[in-house]
Design a protein that fits this description.
The protein is mostly beta strands. About 5% of the residues lie in helices and about 40% in strands. The structure holds zinc ion (ZN) (2 copies).
């Protein structure tokens, strides 16, 4: 058997209790961070860190609940989360309906590709600075 091509690389994201997984095949379309207020509240952290994959590249397995709300952009976001431990394992958004987002921390992979953008940099915590080639956008569209 030959090694799988890089584009068939499978990564598994798991919730905190392990009952819910999202398996992503291939490389992410983009990886980004977001400091909007919704992301801060939802994750309890200074910013979210997520990878977007084509919908067809993501397989979600396990019982989950959905929560749809309006983001700082004014468009809807729908999260899929574990009803046992509450971890968000995936999300979809009005702004990119062909893509599924997965919070990168759920992969527990220190070698995951780094983020390229920080959205809502205008709302980031004052102490927060970044190294590398991260592009800062004041809002979601900038
Ligand atoms: Zn769980
Ligand atoms: Zn956000």
């Amino acid at each position: 058997m030959i090694a799988a091509a890089a584009t068939n690389n499978k990564r598994i994201a798991r919730c905190g209790c392990g009952a819910l997984t999202a398996t992503a095949t291939g490389e992410p379309v983009t990886v980004y961070c977001c400091s909007c207020i919704n992301c801060q509240r939802k994750g309890g952290s200074a910013f979210s860190y997520a990878a977007l994959f084509p919908n067809a590249a993501v397989a979600i397995a396990g019982e989950h609940k959905r929560w749809r709300h309006t983001g700082d952009s004014g468009r809807w976001i729908e999260t899929m989360f574990c009803p046992i431990c509450g971890t968000t394992i995936a999300f979809r958004a009005e702004g990119f309906q062909d893509l599924t987002g997965i919070p990168v921390g759920c992969f527990a992979d220190p070698d995951f590709p780094p983020p390229l953008e920080l959205y809502w940099a205008s709302r980031r915590h004052r102490w927060l600075t970044f190294h590398g080639d991260l592009t800062l956008h004041d809002t979601q569209d900038g």
